[in-house]
Design a protein that fits this description.
Blueprint: H1 7-36, H2 50-73, E1 77-82, H3 87-96, E2 100-106, H4 109-117, E3 124-127, H5 133-138, E4 143-149, E5 152-156, E6 170-173, H6 179-195, H7 201-204, E7 209-212, E8 215-220, E9 230-233, H8 236-244, E10 250-254, H9 255-260, E11 264-271, E12 275-282, E13 285-292, E14 305-311, E15 317-322, E16 327-332, H10 335-344
Parallel strand pairs: 1-2, 1-3, 6-9, 6-10, 8-14
Antiparallel strand pairs: 3-16, 4-16, 5-10, 5-13, 7-8, 11-12, 12-13, 14-15
Helix pairs in contact: 3-10
Transmembrane segments: 15-33
Region (Disordered): 38-63
Organism: Pyrobaculum ferrireducens
């Protein structure tokens, strides 16, 4: 009976639809559960340990930054208060550092430190007197570098003996401004004590006083006049100009100063107890150069204590300085000054007349 009933066709179709719906429902549920299930992170390439990657990157970055900073600092022109004997070596160092040199001024060491104390700070200050180093440090120097030691000499337009010096016309670099001046005063006193030649009379005529009580005190007035035998100049450059023009017969100078002025020194093989004779040549000019021997050369500290007393206009002590060995130094006050000092450290300073010792 059921065979021919309408249900014989409807029922099978109904179950087919139910089955299809169930399959679709299962599929939908499967998709939902699958998408909500946490997924593992995608595989990535293995990274190097942070220590190696970071350090390498930071090193490169740091080096690049330092180079950029140095390049930035070591550009433009440098301003310098530089002793006349040190002009050439400082200009060569500045040029090597990539700096312009038009702002480098020839200034006596004492005068230079006075300018700095007055607030006029340069990029670099160069002095021929190591005794001024504490002054440079007190005025805020970033770095101080010793160039080395050197010797005192007498330069004349004609041949002289020690006994001739009291009668020749000299140009004196003002001891109030230039260390060469007060070394000249000290050397003259020591030579006079040893050899009995009146070498200090010309300075007494300027108002200079010597007092010895186990320590040699040299009192220098704030203003020195010119006399028939002594012409007072502000610094070594000025005394040298007077020698070149024939205005004076002799001047005291340093060995590095000759090199600074492109004077070629040729030893003549002649010497005494107190100096060695050289011929100095520059262009067509010829000079007699007498390089002192110890202790008059001031390559080392003198055998006696020597104190310079600079007086103010009223005659009262304004500044005292120990007069020791000749040792030059350069002080930097800015990054540009640092560039000059760093260049000096790479140069052969013996070519400029400096002697390096274990303590300099």
């Amino acid at each position: 009976m059921l065979k021919n009933s309408p249900f014989s066709l409807i029922m099978p179709q109904k179950w087919i639809y139910i089955a299809i719906g169930a399959v679709i429902l299962v599929a939908v549920l499967a998709v939902v559960f699958t998408s909500s299930k946490p997924q593992p992170p995608p595989a990535t390439a293995q990274q190097p340990p942070p220590s190696t990657q970071t350090s390498a990157t930071s090193t490169v970055t740091s080096t690049q930054a330092q180079t950029a900073a140095q390049t930035s600092a070591c550009s433009g022109g440098v301003v310098g208060f530089v002793a006349p004997a040190l002009i050439r070596v400082v200009k060569d160092a500045a040029t090597k550092a990539g700096l312009g040199v038009d702002g480098i001024q020839s200034v006596g060491s004492v005068e230079g430190i006075r300018r700095i104390q007055g607030g006029a700070k340069p990029d670099v200050y160069a002095s021929v007197d190591i005794e001024l180093r504490p002054d440079a440090e007190r005025t805020g120097a970033r770095e101080v570098f010793s160039l080395g030691r050197f010797k005192l000499a007498l330069v004349c337009r004609r041949a002289v003996e020690l006994g001739d010096i009291p009668r020749v016309k000299l140009s004196l670099a003002d001891p109030n401004k230039a260390p060469i001046g007060y070394r000249e005063l000290a050397a003259s006193w020591m030579l006079q004590q040893k050899y009995g030649v009146d070498l200090t009379g010309r300075y007494a005529a300027l108002g200079v006083r010597y007092v010895y009580n186990g320590t040699l005190y040299i009192y220098v007035p704030s203003s020195l006049p010119n006399t028939d035998l002594t012409d007072v100049a502000p610094n070594l450059d000025a005394t040298w100009s007077r020698l070149e023009t024939g205005a004076v017969d002799c001047v005291y100078a340093y060995v590095p100063f000759f090199i600074n002025k492109y004077v070629e020194l040729k030893p003549l093989g002649k010497s005494t107890e107190y100096w060695e004779l050289y011929e100095g040549r520059k262009g067509g000019a010829s000079y007699n150069v007498y390089v002192f021997k110890p202790p008059y050369d001031f390559l080392n500290d003198p055998p006696i204590s020597v104190v310079l007393v600079l007086l103010d206009p009223s005659g009262r002590p304004a500044k005292t300085l120990k007069v020791g060995r000749f040792e030059a130094f350069v002080a930097s006050y800015t990054e540009r000054g640092d560039c000059v000092v760093n260049a000096l450290k790479t140069m052969n300073l013996a070519d400029y007349g400096f002697v390096r010792t274990t303590s300099s």
